[in-house]
Amino acid sequence: MNADPVDDISGQRRRITFLAVLTLLLASLAALLTGLFGAATWGVSMMAFSGAVESGANRDLMRVVLYFLLAGPFVAGAGLLIGWIVFWTRRPGAGVAWVFLPSLIWVGLLTGYMWAISAFCAGEFTCGV
Q1: What's the confidence (pLDDT) of residue 30?
Q2: Could you tell me which residues come within 8 angstroms of residue 77 by beta carbon, excluding any fewer than 6 positions away?
Q3: What angle do CA 107, 71, 125 make, to 5 degrees?
């Protein structure tokens, strides 16, 4: 067994290539843009939450939805931090995945939620709850 788990089978240390660094920078840019998009939607989310609660929606359920809508910048920031740490511990592929995937999952879930309320709830934020 190798003394260092980051060594590959041939005994050479893994190298961080220019392509890996470029990929990490592009993934970081995408995560930053996702975080900025999430921060830009905070005002709309707060207004939709307050309007839904005033119209009689379940306050606890709407609070969960609001926290999900506000989570974008935090998800992107956590992914960036973890991804860069993993990248520099000689796991470049995993680092890029950690930077890119959390933001992508949040955007996918947000898009699915928006599609569901527009398709099944006629655009009503609370969907009759």
Answers
A1: 94
A2: 35
A3: 75
